[in-house]
UniProtKB/TrEMBL annotation:
This is D-alanyl-D-alanine dipeptidase. Its EC number is 3.4.13.22. Catalyzes hydrolysis of the D-alanyl-D-alanine dipeptide. InterPro entries: A_A_dipeptidase (IPR000755), Zn_M74/Hedgehog-like (IPR009045). Gene3D superfamilies: 3.30.1380.10. Residues 1-23 form the signal peptide. PANTHER family: D-ALANYL-D-ALANINE DIPEPTIDASE. The active site is at 209 (proton donor/acceptor). It comes from Flavobacterium cheonanense. The record marks 118 as: Transition state stabilizer. Binds 1 zinc ion per subunit.
Amino acid sequence: MNFKSYFLSILTLLILISCKSTESSFVKSRKTLSNNYLTGNSIAIYEGINDTTFVNLKDFSSDFVFDMKYATDDNFLKSKVYDCGECYLRLKTIKSLVEANEEFKSLGYRIKLYDCYRPLDVQKKMWVIMPNADYVANPAKGSIHNRGGAVDITLIDENGIELDMGTSFDFFGPEASHNYQDISRKIRKNRALLKSVMLKHNFKSFDSEWWHYNLIDSSKDNLANFKWNCN
Ligand SMILES: [Zn+2]
C-alpha cells in the first residue's frame, strides 16, 4: 500500500466512524425522550431544550390524535401542501398543550390536531386563495402558525368521536365564530369546554375560528419557513 492509498483508507475510516457516532447519538436522544415519556417523567424530557426550540409533539406525548388536514387534499386549498403530517411547535407551546391535554384527559376527552407550525411559504399560498384576515393571516405580517405558537384543534371523546362544534374545521363564515349565537346548547357547551381549558393553560382564543388557539406572547417569536423531514 503506497502512502496515498494508506491516507485514503484512514480518511474513509474516519468518515465512517464520525457518521456512525452522529447517527447513534441521534437515536440515543430519541430513545431517551421516549423512555422518559413512558416513565411519566415529563420534566426530564424538557430539560436542556430551549423554550423556543422547534420540536415534534410526537416526541413528547402519545396522547394526541392527529388529523393534519394540509397533508391531505381535504382542506380549503384543495391540495396537499405538506409532504407529511407532523406537528412541530416551539417547546413552550408543546408544554402548555400537553398540560391542557392532561386536563382534557381527566374529563374523558383528548385534543385532536388539524394544524400546528406552518411554513411561511404555505401561508403565502393560503393568502392567495383566501385574502381575508378574519380567516387567514397576511403573510407580510405572518401568522402565529408560522411562529410555532398556534394550533388548530378540536376535542374527541373516549370513543374517538369529535365533539360537535357546529362547523367543520376551516369553515370560513360567521357560524365558526365564538360570538355566533344561533347554535345549540350542546355546541355552545362543547366550544366553551375547549376554550375554558385552553385559556387556563396559557392560550388565547381567536374570535372568528373556534378551532384556533395562540400561545400567549408567541407573536414576539420569529417567523419560520423550514420544512420538516418525512421518513
Ligand atoms: Zn389556525
